[in-house]
Amino acid sequence: MYLASKIKHLAAIYLVPLIIVMWGTISSPLAGESKAKLEGTVLNINKEAIPQAEVQLKHKDSDQMFNFESNEEGEFSSPSLPAGNYNLTVEKEGYQSYTGELKLRPNIVQNIKVTLVKEIAEEQNREEEAVASFKKGTELSRKNKLEEAIQEFQRAVELKEDFFEAYVNLGTFLFQQQKDDEAEKALLKAFELKPEESKPKEILAAINFEKAKILIQNNKMDEALERLKQSYNFRTDHAYVNFLLGYLYHDKKMKEEAIKHFEAFLQLAPNAPQVKEVKKLLKSLKKD
């Protein structure tokens, strides 16, 4: 469903890391002039508490490290600390970590709020990139920049191996560029993913039909027949696939198959210029 919704709108949504640190101080005198204290809350972007977040302070001057963690309410409180400049790190599994700097002043309890954003899962990130490439490929194809569009669709399927729509577009434009073998490979993958969808089958039928014609021209009739059978399996209502199948079966003395495909041709293309010739052959086949 995640991916389907992205395709429907042809828009990729990018999650931009949002880390918000809100500073504030509340006065609370501490014993000793050089002592300071840090208190705060760790929240997610919905302002919900993040418990057991690890908070680490490193005193820049002395390299002393201070570690504590947030409670169930997301709150944390340090012990008395040396005043001065610190590096702050806040971490929680499943969230992007925060690093920053702060200055703790003597005799002041400093209060902060840290908002952490969840990490983007690797798979989700690849899907986002795949959708972005798909969208770019679509835009390029509308500008008739087919080579560039093909590159974007290729990148989309590399990022997302079950990206049906990208395989269909890749195969379609490769076919238009007369790169039949590459087109067939992409469309067979689309067919494997969604065998009920008609678009891959239509183009695969066309590819096999074109290859069959070339084989017939080169007098490779057995290979042509196999290609025509594949084309027919993808699309039984292709008139000229039935026409050529009828002829090849006729030449092989396979009368029943020839009759079947010639009759299908007549139903699918009743006004085709070959109709008279096919009717004559059918009459001869049925008479025999």
TrEMBL record:
<protein>
    <submittedName>
        <fullName>Uncharacterized protein</fullName>
    </submittedName>
</protein>
<keyword id="KW-0802">TPR repeat</keyword>
<dbReference type="InterPro" id="IPR013784">
    <property type="entry name" value="Carb-bd-like_fold"/>
</dbReference>
<dbReference type="InterPro" id="IPR011990">
    <property type="entry name" value="TPR-like_helical_dom_sf"/>
</dbReference>
<dbReference type="Pfam" id="PF13181">
    <property type="entry name" value="TPR_8"/>
</dbReference>
<keyword id="KW-1133">Transmembrane helix</keyword>
<feature type="transmembrane region" description="Helical">
    <location>
        <begin position="12"/>
        <end position="31"/>
    </location>
</feature>
<keyword id="KW-0677">Repeat</keyword>
<dbReference type="InterPro" id="IPR050498">
    <property type="entry name" value="Ycf3"/>
</dbReference>
<dbReference type="InterPro" id="IPR019734">
    <property type="entry name" value="TPR_rpt"/>
</dbReference>
<dbReference type="Pfam" id="PF13414">
    <property type="entry name" value="TPR_11"/>
</dbReference>
<keyword id="KW-0472">Membrane</keyword>
<keyword id="KW-0812">Transmembrane</keyword>
<dbReference type="Pfam" id="PF13620">
    <property type="entry name" value="CarboxypepD_reg"/>
</dbReference>
<dbReference type="GO" id="GO:0030246">
    <property type="term" value="F:carbohydrate binding"/>
</dbReference>
